[in-house]
Amino acid sequence: MHIASPLNARPLPPNNRRLVLLAYECLCTFEFGIAVEAFGRVDEVLGTPLYDLRVASVEEGVFGAQGGVRLVVDGGFELLKDAGTIVIPGWRSVHESASPRLIAALQQAHRNGSRIMSICAGSFVLAETGLLDGKRATAHWNSTDILAQRFPQVQVEHGMIYVDEGSIITSAGGAAGVDLCLHLIRRDYGIEVANRTARRMVTPPLREGNQAQLIQQPVPQHQAQSLAPLLDDLRTHLNTPLLIDQLARRAGMSRRTFLRRFQDATGTSPGEWMLSVRIEKACTLLESGTQSIDLIAEQAGFGSAETLRHHFRQRLNTSPTKWRKAFNQRRLLA
């Protein structure tokens, strides 16, 4: 069977494109705006938005948002009934409980098959529904301790930028919401569409959820040498052995300084960063053609198919063959 190139094929839609974004009194406008930008804008190739976005109000009538904004939205909880995805963009306070009506609506939507994702303090609303019981979750770094204390049945990940538990997905605050939105687009449409969205949003295309929330990068006293040229070179030479001492010399630093600067700049170690880049390359190759797994493993810098399979199991909880099969099946349904 011939599989069309992604350059010519229509992007893969999720089974249910209806995405409902919650709005509430004292709405967190940054988190709300992230979701609108990622999910509601027209895709430059498809010519339509990736999702059929609607906004559902938790309150009745007109209500206020942070920054003096007043909102009138599409509807209320009735919009959740046929939602494929529901997004909770923050919450007005980690110390303020959600209404019983909102909790019941989210519980029912999840029973109906909706997946629910939260950004920042939205995980507190999810925890109140009980849908996080026994699952891993995260939130903004300054509130994960509170989340763990209030909801001991939730396995709180204090350092991760997002946690994907299948139908329930949570993220840390701020820019981690961008990472989560791109992660969801990658799940639904593949890496090429996610990368295209990232380029439009002028943000890095791939950050794994297990990267650190806090990147220690104080304002320098003077203009420091950038690691960007080195990182760009590593991306184009995936088969080059990652020799730390050699990289440090190229950057004009001691080994110790290089490792510290790399952690400050990327939030992770050189080995973990390179593994993420290689996995992204492998996923792109799997989605873009019919090359053998052995050849893809070589081109992505893994050396062998077995090494590639090992890292797919560890990072993506699947195999390269299953990744490709799922991608192609959904393309044929598009």
SSE blueprint and pairings:
Elements (H helix, E strand, L loop, with lengths): L17 E6 L5 H12 L11 E6 L5 E3 L3 E3 L13 E5 L10 H12 L3 E5 L2 H8 L6 E2 L6 H7 L4 E2 L5 E3 L3 E4 L4 H14 L1 H11 L26 H9 L7 H7 L4 H12 L3 H19 L4 H7 L5 H12 L3 H14 L1
Parallel strand pairs: 1-2, 1-5, 5-6, 6-10, 7-8
Antiparallel strand pairs: 3-4, 9-10
Helix pairs in contact: 1-5, 2-3, 5-6, 8-9, 10-11, 10-13
Note poorly predicted spans: 1-10, 212-224
Instruction: Describe the strand arrangement of the main beta sheet, using strand numbers.
Output: 2-1-5-6-10-9
Determine Rg (CA atoms, Å). Answer: 21 Å
Briefly note the structural class of the backbone: alpha/beta
Instruction: Indicate the CATH architecture of the largest domain.
Output: 3-Layer(aba) Sandwich
What does the main sheet amount to? Answer: 6 strands, mixed
Q: Tally the helices.
A: 13
Report the principal-axis shape. globular
- How would you state the average pLDDT, rounded? 85
Q: CATH topology of the largest domain, what is it called?
A: Rossmann fold
Number of domain units: 2
CATH class of the largest domain equals Alpha Beta
- Count the strands? 10
Amount of beta strand = 5-15%
CATH superfamily of the largest domain: Class I glutamine amidotransferase (GATase) domain
